[in-house]
Amino acid sequence: MSTLPNCPKCSSQYTYEDRNLLVCPECAHEWPAGSEAEHNEDARIIKDANGNVLADGDAVTVIKDLKVKGSSTVLKIGTKVKSIRLVDGDHDIDCKIDGFGAMKLKSEFVKKI
């Protein structure tokens, strides 16, 4: 019995080969056979305003005054944000800011400390 890798998208064990591709019957994801690069697709590289690579748990500083949606307050330039969490989407940083609470930020408006 051959050991095929699990699906990199949904981790299904029921993958099968179709010519030079591996196919997942549960989520219909296809990827090249023997490719380990697909496993790193989920680990998207997110960079700050200066081009530094961000990672979970990093501390960043806000580089521009940002209006807080649904509030009359402004997130001031220089506000420090500790222990960020990277997520998928338009606002790719999830964090908690003292005095504001849980918030999502765009990586283009922060720089790594």
UniProtKB/TrEMBL annotation:
Q: Which residues form the signal peptide?
A: none
Location of the Protein YjdM N-terminal domain: 3-32
Per the record, the similarity remark reads: Belongs to the YjdM family.
User: Which named protein is this?
Assistant: Alkylphosphonate utilization protein
Q: Where is the Protein YjdM C-terminal domain?
A: 46-112
Query: SUPFAM superfamilies annotated for this entry?
Result: Prokaryotic SH3-related domain, Zinc beta-ribbon
